[in-house]
Design goal:
The protein has a four-stranded mixed β-sheet, sandwiched between helices. The two termini are 44 Å apart. The chain is built from 19 helices and four strands. Strand 2 and strand 3 form a beta hairpin. By secondary structure, the chain is mainly alpha-helical. Helix 11 runs antiparallel to helix 12, helix 13 packs across helix 14 and helix 16 packs across helix 17.
Length: 372
């Protein structure tokens, strides 16, 4: 029966010089004698014993010959010590990252399993860095706050850039797990035309249908609830340069807003160049040409021809319901369009269905299950 000898791998930070010093004391050997036996200078041996330098592979072989202690022992010991010291220095630096790490929303980090309830300080910072796959806060800034997705700022509102980046990363992580066909622009246009009929469903059921249809066209759709301080409605970008992804939130918690935002993002993919990413924030730059074009696309899909004129003139709920039936879309969509055209939101508030907490939970479950 053969046996395997496991090499010594210390799990603590011991410098090889400390072990070498003990070996010399045990054998009654002076440093000068070891220097003679190994061909090393007395200064070199002393530097090892004093722990000012490590033990190289070449020196490990010399020590093996002179002391009959395997070179692998010295190599492993030095490697373990260097790793221990590197981690100690890294943890010391992590301690300085506490303020940076505290800027990310704790509830969101816990909800998505990024951190545990007990994680603070160093543990929290390290897990957030691993989430973003960066080594330092500076690297986070370069990678996530200056990416192809632009952080457009509203003149009226400010946003939390760390939490916006957090939302984007969570969406990216989820979207990468969605199985889709190769991207097909023709199929995507056909899917866009089918979205309006899905607005007659509940948001969770419509999301299931939209996600499946978009996957066939090569687009990954996912949902991640809004992170506090972000004002994010949705985002579009290309994963690995060849696969478009759409992330959407429950911003404003209205059916009409949800579906309009989805078609808006599809409009970005259809009308704008590949590999162009968009982060759509509530209160963003209305004058932005690409945003106006995406809005026009969504309007064309939902309200073709001159039907918007009829919606604007509709004076009663009955008229809006009839228009919705004629178009084959949800009444909420017509009510939302009326409010947008007339700014008379109070008149249509009862027709605009809300997205409930149960709906949000269902959307999160669907997103996780589809990615599993």
């Amino acid at each position: 029966m053969s046996t395997t000898t496991k090499e010594f791998q210390p799990n603590w930070g011991v410098h090889p010089g400390e072990i070498l010093s003990g070996v010399l004391d045990q054998r009654g050997m002076r440093q000068v004698e070891l220097a003679q036996r190994t061909g090393l200078s007395a200064k070199h041996v002393n530097q090892i014993v004093k722990q000012t330098i490590g033990v190289s592979p070449d020196v490990s072989i010399l020590l093996e010959r002179a002391l009959d202690i395997p070179a692998s022992f010295w190599i492993d010991l030095d490697t373990q010590y260097q790793a221990f010291e590197s981690r100690r220095r890294a943890e010391a630096m992590l301690g300085e990252y506490g303020t940076w790490a505290s800027r990310f929303d704790t509830a969101t980090l816990r909800l998505h399993g990024v951190i545990d309830a007990a994680d603070t300080g160093i543990a929290r910072a390290e897990k957030i860095l691993k989430l973003f796959q960066v080594a330092t806060p500076d690297a986070f800034t370069q990678t996530w706050l200056r990416p192809s997705v632009s952080f457009r700022r509203s003149q009226a509102f400010t946003i939390s850039e760390p939490n916006t980046a957090l939302w984007l990363r969570l969406v990216e992580r989820s979207a990468r797990d969605v199985s889709v066909e190769p991207f097909n622009a023709r199929k995507l246009r056909a899917v866009a035309k089918s979205i309006p009929t899905m607005t007659t469903m509940t948001v969770p059921n419509g999301f299931v249908a939209a996600r499946a249809a978009l996957a066939e066209a090569g687009v990954a759709l996912t949902f991640v609830r809004e992170v506090p301080g972000t004002r994010v409605c949705a985002a579009t970008w290309w994963i690995d340069g060849d696969r478009p992804a759409i992330g959407i939130t429950e911003r404003h918690r209205r059916h009409d807003t949800f579906w309009f935002n989805l078609l808006h993002e599809i409009g970005h993919i259809v009308r704008h160049p590949r590999r162009t990413s968009f982060l759509d924030l509530d209160g963003g730059e209305a004058a932005d040409k690409t945003e106006a074009e995406a809005n026009d696309f969504a309007v064309e899909m939902l309200f073709p021809g001159d039907i918007s004129d009829s919606i604007a003139r509709a004076a009663t709920h009955r008229e809006m319901i009839i228009i919705a039936a004629r178009l084959g879309i949800g009444v909420s969509m017509v009510a939302g369009r009326h409010g947008n055209l007339t700014n008379e939101w109070r008149q249509v508030s009862r027709l605009r269905e809300s997205i409930s907490d149960e709906d949000i939970s269902a959307l999160e479950t669907i997103a996780k299950d589809a990615a599993a």
